[in-house]
Amino acid sequence: MGQSLSEPVTSKETAFCQNDLYKVGSSCMQGWRMHMEDSHTHILSLPDDPGTSFFAVYDGHGGAKVAEYAGKHLHKYITRRLEYGKDVRHALQQGFLDLDEAMLNNEALREQMSGSTAVAVLIKDNRLYCANAGDSRAIACIDGRLDVLSFDHKPTNETEKERICSAGGYVEYNRVNGYLALSRALGDFGLKRNKHKLPEEQMVTAYPDVEEREITESWDFLVLACDGIWDVLSSQAVLEFVQTEIAQGVYPQQICENLMDRCMAPDCQMGGIGGDNMTVIIVCFLHGQPYEELINRCKEAVAKRDARRKRRLHSNRSHDSNIEDHDTSKSHANGRLDDDSSGSESERSEGERTPSLAMRNKENEEEEDSEATRNGEPSQEKSTSAVQPLTKEPKDKEKPVSLESNNASAEDSSDEIDLK
């Protein structure tokens, strides 16, 4: 984790923006770390491609320069690619590499012993593209269900380890060459010096994985965050936290703050968990409707979830009453709720990627139908609770943002660079 402060810095830099399609909130907090090294961007309409939206979180390490530069310029390198109009996926992948090359060609940035993760979501013509390099993460809530949009790049992942070793590196203490805890990143040029390897073949590469989805009216919200969040809470736990907050009428920028407070460690003696910088962006899909419509959808999803768990607990209690006392603890473990409150290592392992949303929905629907039948209830549940009043938009710590990141701009040495 590195050095920690004696007391955390809990002041937050919070912002929001909105149009007919999205209601967006963001916030970042230094926490227990000596310095704030994160950056983020939310742009409702790209200057070079009006109507296209771009959201990204950058988690810096070893310094803030790379994250700051990426926050200002990554979307520009993507949209200026010649193939951008025909092949957005390829433009994202090459845009990441172009940005990395530009920083490598800048002496001030090249000499920085720093790097940054990058998870970026671009939405164009009702298509969502999520590009990820590192262990920041993006998830979506679709019809109340979880869809993980990115997968963490860790040195222990089999394919990542193969690339690292092929480029002349090694994995020790679950780190690249014993010190970098992620296997893809912008910057970190000391680990990209194999002249016989392409940029995407280096020990650490900026080349991102890209996931693609079609946006429909069943999309509820996105969460993009650095690993300061995901190390504490699982993807499912974060979804349920945000879903519950929206159901209570809380605005996304306040939910970001509440989520960071939930994840921050009470002291600096927890092995780094909850002690990192934290950055969160929440993108709520409005689909041209008032925010109250999303509140109602989340209320229904929360009501279904609560009813499902009550049935499950009732079933488990009935089962427990029919077994010996010495087996009680084992039965309780088998009946554990699936909203694991801590980040799961299985989420981070390649080869255990989240099943398709359609498959998960089918399995969940079958489970709900089966449980409802056993309890003599209809399979489709509807929440009849009234809409709670919206919380008032905070005015003191937040500022509206329509385009660029709310982070401080990079210094002169990090000005935009044209590729040579």
Protein architecture, described:
The chain is α+β, with helices and mostly antiparallel strands. It has one domain (7-302): Phosphatase 2c, domain 1. It contains eleven helices and 16 strands. It has helices at residues 65-79, 88-104, 107-110, 158-166, 227-230, 235-247, 252-263, 291-320, 328-334, 345-348, 357-374; strands at 4-18, 22-33, 38-43, 53-61, 115-116, 118-124, 127-133, 137-142, 145-148, 171-172, 175-176, 186-187, 209-214, 219-225, 278-285, 398-400. It has a seven-stranded mixed sheet. α6 packs across α7 (252-263). The radius of gyration is 22 Å and the shape is globular.
What is the compact description of this entry?
It contains eleven helices and 16 strands. It has 420 residues and is α+β, with helices and mostly antiparallel strands. The chain has one domain: PPM-type phosphatase domain (Phosphatase 2c, domain 1, 4-Layer Sandwich).
Topology:
Layout: E1 4-18, E2 22-33, E3 38-43, E4 53-61, H1 65-79, H2 88-104, H3 107-110, E5 115-116, E6 118-124, E7 127-133, E8 137-142, E9 145-148, H4 158-166, E10 171-172, E11 175-176, E12 186-187, E13 209-214, E14 219-225, H5 227-230, H6 235-247, H7 252-263, E15 278-285, H8 291-320, H9 328-334, H10 345-348, H11 357-374, E16 398-400
Parallel strand pairs: 1-16
Antiparallel strand pairs: 1-2, 2-15, 3-4, 4-5, 4-6, 5-12, 6-7, 7-13, 8-9, 8-14, 10-11, 14-15
